[in-house]
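Hi everyone,

Forwarding the result from last night's run.
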Amino acid sequence: MWLKTDDKRVFGLDIIRAVAILLVVCAHGGFILDGTRLEGFPYFRMIDGVDLFFVLSGFLIGGLLLKEFNKSKGIEIGQLFNFWKRRWFRTLPNYYLILLLNYLVVKYKIINESIDHFNFHFLFFTQNFKTPFYSFFWESWSLSIEEWFYILTPLLIFLLVKISNLKQTFLIATLVMIVFPFLYRYSIHTVQIDSFGWDILFRKTVLCRLDSIGYGLLAAWFFKYYPVIWKKIRLPSFILGILLILFIINFRSEHTTVYKQIIYFSLLPVSVMLLLPQFSNFKSSHGLIPYIIEYISKISYSMYLIHLALVAEIIRDNFTPKGGTDGILKYFVFWFIVILASSLLYKFFEYPIMNLRDKKIKSLWFTKIN
């Protein structure tokens, strides 16, 4: 009997999410293969998996906001709290649990990071709002960008909708989210920077990267208001997106250039956005491979939180790969632990909390719960 994917999910979007997390984990665990026959695997340049997550988040959350706000003529403050509650139930419990575990493995020197870099900013996702951070819970940089997107986007729509209709307001808010980070990157552009500085300042700060999610918002707006055109452009848009991705991963540029500090961070999400009309059309599938893809998509958030400090760095600092067969074996162990630990976290912590969220518990802030 064929395994069937969940009809309530869009299988094409699960593909994007699964590919995104596999790219991220593959990139962060690649050092284990140094000195082995598989060194350099997968042997070709890859797109940044985090950007796939960003654009997909913008597309999905944008769709939810449009659906929610279309239910009534105006937007009430209770709707904002409802949205934030659902998002925070989805993201915060996992985040704070893994933050605590990161603190413990650093404090007790299980991994070689600096506890001096931990501070209260990690509790409020301000560790990289404008300035860089490093040497503690590295992967949280993207989570801060996501959380500020969740806060700012609906708030901006709420403020702007008083002067225009939802269609125009949503587009204006989207353009703000796209244009402001572009201009901000331009304002801090500098030739006095190395690859590490470029990574932590331009690639990993909130103010520089909100537009990556903004392009997902733009796709959600187009999908909502121009569905016929959305369907018609699927193939040409997909081809253009693939060509743009090939250009991005093969065009080499110094970190000090305008392209690398400003334009690159716009082109990458645009290329992903162009893939959405095609992938959003894949509604469901069946068989072992689609089932695995959907499963990886479901546990992707847990995988993202666990794989680096709690698996890869523990292997690096306590069971250092020695190359050859040892490195290859530990690489497979790395993947096995990531999948197993993420599955357990999802089943016994993340999923139950999502169920709790969906039970429509009465809120102190408002009475209407969706």
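The chain has a mean pLDDT of 92.

Cheers,
N.
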